[in-house]
Amino acid sequence: MLYAGIDEAGYGPLLGPLCVGCSAWQIESGADIDAPPDLWQLLKGAVCRKARDRRGRIAINDSKQLKGSGAGGRHPLADIERGVLAALSTLHAAPCCGDADVFERLGSAAPPESEPWYAGGVPLPFACDAPHLSLGASMLRRDLAKAGVRLLGLHCAAVDAGPINDAARRGAVKSSIPWTLVMQHVRHLRAAANGSLLRVAVDRQGGRMRHVDELLREFPSDRLKIEQEDETESRYRLKGASGTLVISFTVDAEAAHLPVALASMTAKYVRELWMLRLNRFFISRVDGLAPTAGYVTDGRRFMDRIRPALDREGIDCARLVRSV
C-alpha cells in the first residue's frame, strides 16, 4: 500500500510562495487502507513529535509546532530543516549542499529564475548542525529498514505571487489554487501506486466539507463513494482503472498522520528557503531593513520600506505582491 500525506504552507501571506508538500510511504503488504499504520509508533526509534528529544530522534510534526522562537541562539527552523533533509537523505545518497539541491529533489519547488529577488542560493544546512543532521538520518534509515517501511517520495509544488495574481485576473477563486496543487500531487501518487492501494490524507483548510464534484471532475471514470462528511473529516473511496484510492480531508491531519506532518514541514521549509533569498535581495538594497516572513501586517511594513528600491529596480509589484 502507498500511504501519503499532503499539506500546504503560505496560503495567507502577502509575499512569497504558496507551497504544497507531499510525502509518500510504501507500507508492506497487508496494510489496511482504512486504518493506515501509526508511523510514529513504527519508527519510534528514530522519530518523535517533540523538538529537542533527549535521544536525538528526528522531530516530525506540524511545522507550526516545530518552528522555534530563536531563544538561546537556536535557529527557529532547526527541527524543520533537520527533518526534511534527513528524509531526503533516505532517497538520495549525496547530501543537499545548497537549496538548489533541495528544489531539484523535491520537484516543482524552485523559485522562478525570471524574478531577480530570488537570485542566488542558500548553502545548507543553514539552521541545524551537520553532525546532528547526519545522526538523525542514520537513525531514520535504520528504523525504516527495521519496520519494513520505505519513504517512496518527498515532493513540493510552489506557486508565486505572479501566477497567483494571473489566476485571480482570469476569475479563479483563491481556494482553487491550493486545490490544483493538491490534485497535482494526487495524480502523481496514483501513477506511482500503479494500481495498488493508495491512501491519501490531506489537511483540511477552512470549514469546507464537500469535495465530491471536484473529485469527479478530476477522476471522471472512477466510481466514488462518500464514507464520511462532517465537521472533522471528509473521506471518499474511488475505484477505477487506476486502482483504489481512499482520500480524506481532515482537520488537524498533521496530528493523526505522520505523512501529513512531514508534508507540512516540507512545504514550510521550501517557503522559508524562498523567503531567505527574497529577504537577502532587498536587505542588500535598503539600509537597516528587517527581514519579513511575508504575512500581511509585517509584509506591508516591508513593502513600505522597499518602495524606493522597487522604483529604482523597475520591479513590477504585480509579480511580487499577491492580490488575493
Keywords:
324 residues; alpha/beta; Nucleotidyltransferase, domain 5; two-stranded parallel sheet; 12 helices; 41% helix
Explain what this protein looks like in three dimensions.
The mean pLDDT is 96. A hairpin with a 3-residue loop joins strand 7 and strand 8. 41% of the residues lie in helices and 19% in strands. The strands form two sheets. Strands 5-2-1-6-9-8-7 form a seven-stranded mixed beta sheet, sandwiched between helices. Strands 3-4 form a two-stranded parallel ribbon. It has one domain: Ribonuclease H-like superfamily/Ribonuclease H (Nucleotidyltransferase, domain 5, 2-Layer Sandwich). The chain is globular, with a radius of gyration of 20 Å. With 324 residues, it is an alpha/beta fold.
Cα-atom radius of gyration: 20 Å
Task: Give, in order, the helices and strands.
Answer: EEHEEHHHHEHHEHEEEHHHH
Low-confidence spans: none
Shape: globular
> In angstroms, what separates the terminal alpha carbons?
38 Å
Tally of contiguous helical segments: 12
CATH topology, what is it called? Nucleotidyltransferase, domain 5
Q: What is the name of the CATH superfamily? A: Ribonuclease H-like superfamily/Ribonuclease H
Percentage of residues assigned to helices: 40-55%
Q: What number of structural domains do the residues give?
A: 1
Report the sheet-strand fraction.
Answer: 15-25%
Main sheet makeup? 7 strands, mixed
Q: Tell me what the CATH architecture is.
A: 2-Layer Sandwich
The count of DSSP E runs of length 2 or more, i.e. the number of strands, is 9
As laid out across the biggest beta sheet, the strand order is 5-2-1-6-9-8-7
CATH domain class: Alpha Beta
Derived structural class = alpha/beta
Average per-residue pLDDT, rounded, comes to: 96
